[in-house]
Specification:
- This protein has 207 residues and is an all-alpha fold.
- It has 9 helices and 2 strands.
- The radius of gyration is 16 Å and the shape is globular.
């Protein structure tokens, strides 16, 4: 399956593409971008583990997310290697408002809480893939090749999360997906003081 075939379902799912201003900042903020990317891979694994522990009675969820966690940790290690190879330093970073903005509007009551968490997981994974593809046209060939590899490796993750959300459907999952996609579009297209892997339109760049 080629890149266009891989990215097409992602673009059809999301309501917007990465703003040009965000992409133009990538080349001059590559170290920051890579460090935050590593944090994102670690966070993705942590989120999967959290769901595994919280919903240990749901076998299909356990099996699907355990594989996802392994892949995310492998990618975390790979990005760390790239950071080290390029002479950058892996440092703590404050998080963007992106994920927090999505979780802020999620239900706190079960079983809707689980479904919302799965939908949010799907959206974050889809946005990551969309940015892997977009960035592959703005960075050096070595890094572009790695982002294309990640697109191939992770393009099914958002569909895995969606399939789980629909499995535990409470009758309004499609409406909830649209609700969160609209919120995500707002976050991606809004001005953002931080430049991060999932941040919005950059305004002032600070670490």
């Amino acid at each position: 399956m080629n890149e266009i075939q891989l990215i097409s379902p992602v673009k059809e799912f999301l309501l917007c593409e990465t703003p040009q201003a965000w992409l133009e900042k990538a080349q001059e903020n590559l170290a920051l971008l890579l460090v935050d990317h590593a944090h994102c891979e670690k966070k993705a694994a942590s989120t999967g583990l959290s769901l595994i522990y919280r919903y240990s009675d749901k076998t299909e969820l356990l099996k699907m997310l355990s594989q996802l966690v392994r892949e995310e940790m492998l990618h975390f290690e790979q990005v760390l290697d790239i950071i080290e190879k390029r002479g950058f330093e892996f440092i703590p970073l404050s998080a963007s408002t992106y994920a927090a903005g999505l979780h802020a509007v999620a239900s706190k009551e079960e079983p809707q809480r689980l479904i919302d968490q799965l939908i949010i997981g799907a959206i974050i994974e889809a946005r990551s893939c969309e940015r892997f593809y977009a960035l592959s046209h703005y960075v050096d060939e070595e890094l572009a090749q790695y982002y294309r590899f990640l697109l191939k490796s992770e393009s099914r993750h958002f569909e895995d999360y969606l399939s789980l959300a629909r499995k535990y459907d409470m009758g309004d999952t499609d409406e909830r997906i649209v609700f969160f996609l609209e919120k995500e579009k707002e976050l991606i297209e809004s001005e953002d003081e931080l430049y991060r892997f999932h941040s919005g339109v950059p305004v002032i760049i600070r670490a």
